[in-house]
Amino acid sequence: MLVVQCDFDDTVTVGNVSVAIREAFDLENWKEMEEEFVSGKYTVEESNIRQYAGLTVSRQEIEEFVKGDVVVRYAFDEFAAYCAGTGVHLAVVSSGLEFYVSATIGAMGMDGVEIHAGHAEFTPNGIRVSYENPAGAPITNAFKDSYVAHFKSQGNTVVFVGDGLSDLGPARLADHVIARDGLADDMERLGLPYSRFETFRDVGEHVERIRKNLEDNDSNR
Asked: What is the pTM for the complete model shown?
């Protein structure tokens, strides 16, 4: 099977939703904590656990913000429909939080999209974030990598779609990479093969080419 594993923040969406939430609700010191993640002091999972712990707002407040302010990248709904119609397995795997990923995609009427992301427990003292790998074990590093490895272990061909710093690890494990922004720069710097995208119309064209090549290879065996 052909699996498309797709990042969420700044990939499915235009802009980083997690950053927008921290800015909108005035999370104290989030920029300093983000710099520590970028410098490599913390993994993206550890950074999110630290940052959301200081955010004392309700789930409803964040969901209303997300539904009103988040912009989904052009043609994502079209691409999801293409995957459903051609038997391509689409999975959105994000080191962000499942509740806001689901709220964004659900607002588009696409409740059937497979989503894997961080769990959020809302408490009076902040949001408690946790991650689990595909086997259900706690994980604080390489969350997205674990899903690429899982899908490949099932004999699938994996296409990874992403944009940023935490996407290089899973991209290096995938069979094909479709990238933009920082991930595209990293792939160029390392001399690794990838296809570039700006909209999901581009992603669809790249995936269809991969799908047809796989079909042709199967028919020639």
From this structure: 0.95
